[in-house]
Amino acid sequence: MMIFAYDNQGIIMTDRVPCEKSVTAVYYHDFLQNLRRKMHKNRPQLLNDTPLILHDNARPHIGHVVTEKLREYGWEVLPHSPYSPDMSPPDFDLFPKLKKPMRGRRFRSLEELSTAVTRAIRQMKRWYPQWYSKASDSLGFGH
Fold first, then answer.
1. Helix axes 25-42, 64-73, angle to 10 degrees
2. CATH code for the domain in which residue 134 is found
3. Other beta carbons within 10 Å of 136
């Protein structure tokens, strides 16, 4: 499993969850700390505004240590709409674009898959910001 954090410029951070490891509230808390460090280094402008977090309402995401960390950081959590593919941005936005260059391939190991995902992310960085801007404009969101 991988955890992705992204914005209108592309992917900020990915975290490959080790096999046999569960994403607990503590694990997700640590992910958020690492994400904040990445944002500080690569997207400091995000920290000047109030970052908005959209994550599902799985137990690790709503655990006390996580909600306290989000409050400490001043990050706003967007309410999660009922699950529907047309309402979950990563399902119609990010994941299909990541999967496209890997379609039809078989991977012999998780390492090989992880390398392919990393390559797809690097390719996305070249065109995602322009695509996002056009999509936002066409939907009337601006940016």
1. 20
2. 3.30.420.10
3. 13
Q: Which residues contact 26 (CB under 8 A, 6 or more apart)?
A: 63, 65
Whether 122 and 128 have beta carbons less than 8 Å apart is answered as no
Phi, psi dihedrals of residue 84, rounded to the nearest 5°: -160, 130
User: Residue 127 belongs to what domain range?
Assistant: 2-139
Q: Can you give the pLDDT of all 143 residues of the chain as single tens digits?
A: 888 888 878 889 989 898 899 999 999 999 999 999 999 999 999 888 888 887 876 777 888 999 999 999 999 888 766 656 556 667 777 788 888 888 999 999 988 988 898 888 888 877 777 777 776 666 565 55
Q: Which residues pair with 3 in a beta bridge?
A: 15
Strands 52-53 and 2-7: unpaired
